[in-house]
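Notes from hallway chat w/ T.B., transcribed later so I don't forget. T.B. wanted the structure written out for a chain they're using in a teaching module, and asked if we could keep both sequence and structure tokens in one place. Agreed to drop them here.
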Amino acid sequence: MSQYFEVHPQNPQARLLKQAAAILQAGGIAAIPTDSSYALVCRLDDKAAAENLRRVRQVDDKHHLTLLCRDLSELASYARVDNRQYRLLKLGTPGPYTYILEATKEVPRRLSHPSRRTIGLRVPDHRVTQELLALFGEPLLATTLILPGETEPLNDASEIADRLGKSLQAVVDAGACPMQPTTVIDLSGDEPVLVRQGRGELARLGL
């Protein structure tokens, strides 16, 4: 059964987030809130945890997972970013945008696109996510919490615990999320390409 942490959305209790971070450090999977929807997360370099995360979502290894980063400097450790890309990233960070960029060697090869060596990264604008990332000390591997056969992400932490409690090790409840996916922009080519329009407005990026 998963441990359930009820935290304040604007002033989360560090003690509870430290316990959730310890569960992730030990190879657990957690459901956490973000600025777009609830997400499933695990350690980046834990192969077994990543496989368990895919199993819960029932997606194969072709399904792109995303790295949640604290800030732009952390993101730049895992993706190659030139000056043009950096200016665009700065406009939308933190925020509900996922950027597809060329992965660095810091990213395990099994997590990047098999033929293009790209990875999806984002810096969420959510106090609880940010503080959890700060306590954890490295990016988290993430996927939107949409159950197989459903089109909308789960948005109620108690329902997440009821339905997935046996598959997860932690649920962090900070109330409802916007329930709208991130805007996905591919920056790996010569020009930005919109992959999915979501919560993030293109105008904010000057596109």
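Follow-up for T.B.: The chain has a mean pLDDT of 92. Might be a good example for the class.
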